[in-house]
């Protein structure tokens, strides 16, 4: 028996597709429905390692999927797997993306091939969806960008092309916090072909603030003009960020000074906003610590007053290191370390802290490139063609630790103490493990080490990150249950009558 499926599409990137999909997954799972998330294609440098790989892979192997589908699987109570994100594009530059298919590296895609060079990717995506539908009652699919990417429609397998192929009812999500939500929803529908329009069964308004009664006239007019119901108006809720795929969501992670009691002793952590930042969720757990102020910086002056600097992962280590130098951040980081401040480099950020980075095979550009690092750690990185994926466990700072590895760089360490697959020299830490700070023990130990060196007394270790994540998922499902017509959504999965075609018009409201 084939399970039912739903597409959650959007009017634009960051309209709320990921959040709505995640909330629906948890809400359906709480009803006892076997549900799986799915996104045919991500374009994101925020990914996660999961157990297993493509068919025929060696037992015990690992695979790579988008971080958003990983958290959606957690919300659904399902085991994350490659079929939930069969195609992952990881931008290395504005013109080239590295391709991951069913969790494994599959070459690169140039900008000129984006429209026409993806037939094999579409086949992989369709096969993965068919597989999930054979094993789950409901598959909740997330679209990408806008549902009305009409320049890409002929080769589309992510939005309406996917919906058409699978006969999926589609929800269109719009972000009212940006303004223009009624025009964007009606315009999205009007730009679709009559055949695609038949699959759009309703709208969801996301991030609404204020009196819902003031919205009613607009909702009524939207329904009248389009013939589609608004199945929900989800309120804007402070702090409800998730493990998203898009760095546009970093704004929701900025520190809220109102959460700190006046006069409280806090640690300030500056996270460098690299242009090709990857796995930015590595610092999410720091954002939840009441004794920690996290800020995202791209200017050397913003490091003033920071107790610790985090250099996160990146999909373009050499290019982002050049950007760092071009902005003067390299010198500011070295000066910060010389003044007794802590520095934590994660994956690509760790590689930047070493003595040299070598690319003999051309992973990030021309083969044979060698560039000096910041020289804060005795380590040399050499890129290899094969990607390292892993789910390591170990100990550091006297506590158990775990994380995940995704990298081409192989690091050779000279002097210094070992630290999470990397090295430590005083308060300069380098690790190849993503996600390690999600471990409550390791995070607390690192923060205490930084605080002790800075002569600070802060309250840490009282936040359980895994429990906080579960609470956020349940809050999101509560919002869906309270503000969306979930019964109508379930009925929508069984199809329905033909709906009117909507065309662009200058008709005045009645």
UniProtKB/TrEMBL annotation:
Alphabetized CDD domains for the sequence: CobQ_N, GATase1_CobQ
One GO molecular-function entry: ABC-type vitamin B12 transporter activity
Active site (record annotation): 347, 434
GO BP, sorted A to Z: cobalamin biosynthetic process
Domain of life: Bacteria
Domain named CobB/CobQ-like glutamine amidotransferase: residues: 268-438
Residue runs in coiled coils: none
Keywords per UniProt: Cobalamin biosynthesis, Glutamine amidotransferase
All copies of domain CobQ/CobB/MinD/ParA nucleotide binding, residue ranges: 7-238
Transmembrane segments annotated in the record for this chain: none
UniProt keyword NADP present: no
Any Pfam family hit: CbiA
Pathway it works in: Cofactor biosynthesis; adenosylcobalamin biosynthesis
Function per UniProt: Catalyzes amidations at positions B, D, E, and G on adenosylcobyrinic A,C-diamide. NH(2) groups are provided by glutamine, and one molecule of ATP is hydrogenolyzed for each amidation.
Family of the protein in this entry: Belongs to the CobB/CobQ family. CobQ subfamily.
Protein name: Cobyric acid synthase
Species in which this protein is naturally found: Tomitella fengzijianii
Phylogenetic placement of the source organism: Bacteria, Bacillati, Actinomycetota, Actinomycetes, Mycobacteriales
């Amino acid at each position: 028996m084939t399970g039912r499926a739903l597409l959650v599409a959007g009017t634009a990137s960051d309209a709320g597709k990921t959040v709505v999909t995640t909330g629906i997954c948890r809400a359906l799972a709480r009803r006892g429905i076997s549900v799986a998330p799915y996104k045919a294609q991500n374009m994101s440098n925020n990914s996660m390692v999961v157990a297993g790989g493509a068919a025929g892979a060696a037992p015990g192997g690992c695979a790579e999927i988008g971080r958003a589908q990983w958290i959606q699987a957690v919300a659904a109570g399902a085991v994350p797997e490659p079929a939930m994100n069969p195609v992952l594009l990881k931008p290395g530059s504005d013109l080239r993306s590295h391709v991951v298919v069913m969790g494994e590296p599959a070459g690169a895609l140039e900008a000129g091939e984006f429209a026409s060079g993806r037939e094999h990717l579409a086949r992989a995506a369709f096969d993965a969806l068919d597989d999930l539908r054979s094993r789950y009652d409901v598959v909740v699919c997330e679209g990408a960008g806008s549902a009305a990417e009409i320049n890409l429609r002929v080769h589309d397998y992510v939005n309406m092309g996917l919906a058409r192929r699978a006969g999926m009812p589609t929800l269109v999500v719009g972000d009212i916090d940006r303004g223009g939500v009624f025009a964007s929803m009606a315009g999205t529908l009007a730009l679709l072909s009559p055949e695609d329009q038949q699959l759009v069964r309703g709208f969801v308004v996301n991030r609404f603030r204020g009196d819902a009664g003031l919205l009613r006239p607009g909702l009524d007019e939207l329904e009248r003009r389009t013939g589609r119901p608004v199945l929900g108006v989800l309120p804007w809720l402070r702090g409800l960020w998730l493990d998203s795929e898009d760095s546009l969501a970093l704004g929701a992670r900025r520190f809220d000074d109102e959460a700190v009691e006046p006069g409280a002793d806090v640690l300030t952590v500056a996270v460098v906003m690299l242009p090709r930042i990857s796995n930015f969720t590595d610092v999410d757990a720091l954002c939840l610590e009441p004794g920690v102020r996290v800020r995202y910086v791209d200017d050397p002056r913003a490091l003033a007053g920071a107790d610790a600097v985090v250099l996160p992962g990146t999909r373009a280590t050499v290019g982002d290191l050049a950007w760092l130098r071009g902005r003067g951040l390299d010198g500011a980081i070295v000066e910060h370390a010389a003044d007794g401040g802590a520095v934590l480099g994660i994956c690509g950020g760790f590689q930047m802290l070493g003595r040299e980075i070598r690319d003999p095979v051309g992973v990030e550009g021309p083969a044979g490139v060698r560039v000096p690092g910041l020289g804060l750690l005795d380590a040399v990185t050499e890129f290899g063609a094969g990607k390292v994926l892993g789910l390591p466990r170990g100990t550091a700072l006297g506590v158990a630790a775990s994380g995940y590895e995704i990298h081409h760089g192989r690091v050779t360490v000279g002097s210094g103490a070992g630290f999470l697959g990397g090295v430590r020299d005083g308060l300069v830490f380098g690790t190849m493990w993503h996600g390690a700070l999600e471990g409550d023990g390791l995070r607390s130990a690192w923060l205490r080490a930084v605080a002790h060196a800075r002569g600070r007394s802060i309250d840490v270790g009282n936040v359980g990150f895994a429990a906080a994540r579960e609470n956020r998922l349940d809050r999101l499902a509560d919002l869906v249950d309270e503000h969306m017509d979930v019964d109508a959504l379930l009925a929508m999965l069984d199809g329905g009558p033909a709906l009117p075609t909507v065309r662009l018009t200058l008709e005045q409201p009645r």
